[in-house]
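Journal club side-thread
Mid-discussion, someone asked how the predicted structure for our own chain would compare to the paper's figures. Pasting it here so we can look after the session.
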Amino acid sequence: MYKIPGHHHISMITKNASQNNYFYKKVLGLRRVKMTVNQDDPSMYHLFYGDKTGSPGTELTFFEIPLAGNTYPGTNAITRIGLLVPSEDSLHYWKARFEELGVTHSGVTTYANRPALKFEDPDRLRLVLLVSNGEKVKHWETWEKSDVPEEHQVQGMGSVEMTVRKLDKMTSTLTDMFGYTEVSRSEREVVFQSVEGEVFGEIVVKSMDGPSEMPGRGSIHHLAIRVKNDAELEFWDEQVKKRGFHSSGIVDRYYFKSLYFRESNGILFEIATDGPGFTVDGDVEHLGEKLDLPPFLQERRSEIEAKLSPIEEK
C-alpha cells in the first residue's frame, strides 16, 4: 500500500486579493509562487504562496471572491492551519512582528502539544505557528528575498485542524483508507500523522456537535494531501471509490494532477501529485510575477485579464 507523505497544499477564500497578497508576502514573508485563476471559474484569481519554488507541503492558496460574506463558524469544516517555524525564539520574533504590524494574535501557548502562537489573517482565517524542532518539510527552500530572516521563516504546513460531528467516520477514513497513524486521543480530540513522528502530515480532528460552518471570507475550502506520481493517484482514485465515496476522477491542473472527494462529514479532500510543479511554465527567478494560465486557457487570456482587477503591490 502506498503511504501519504504529508500535506500538499490548502485552499482558502479571500475577499480582497491585494490585501491577501500584502499579508502573505510582506507580513508572513512567503513567496507568491503563482498568480493564476480558478480553472473552473477563470473570473477569479487563484494565488499560491510558499517557499522558493512552491514545494508541495508549503503552499497556501487563495481564491478571491469579492462578494464573499463573513464565515459563520461551526462544525464539519477545516478550522485552523498550522505553519512551522524553526524554534521557540521564532515564536517570540513573530509575536513582536505581529504586534508591530497590528496582526490579531494570542500569546505564546501550546497547540497539539507543541509551543505555538495563534493568529488571524485579514479575512479572520485562523492560523497557528508551531515549533518544528527540525521537522520542517524536508524539501523546503529558503526564499532569499523574504522580508523575514531565514532563521525565523515559515518552513511549510504543520498540523491542520478539522472539526467534525462524526469523529469515528473521519478516523476510519484517515486510518483505514489512507494509513494515517493515531498518535494521541482525548475525549474530543484525536491527532493523526501520515508519517509517524512528523508534524508536516499531521491532522488534528476535533469532535463538535451543532450546526455546520457557513463558509465565507477566511474559510478553508479543502486540504490537498500528497502523492508522488500518476500511478499513485490512480491507486487512490480506486480506493476512494471502493470506500463508497464519489470521486471527481483525475483532473489535470497542469501544475499537478489531482482528484477530489468528500468524506462522511462533508470535508473536501484533494489528492494531488508532487509534479510537475510551478516551474513548468516559468523560471525560478521570476515565479509569481505575472499572470500564468494553463495551456487550455491561453486563448482566452485577453477576456480573462479584462475581468480581473490588478493586484496592488505594496
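Post-session note: The mean pLDDT is 97.
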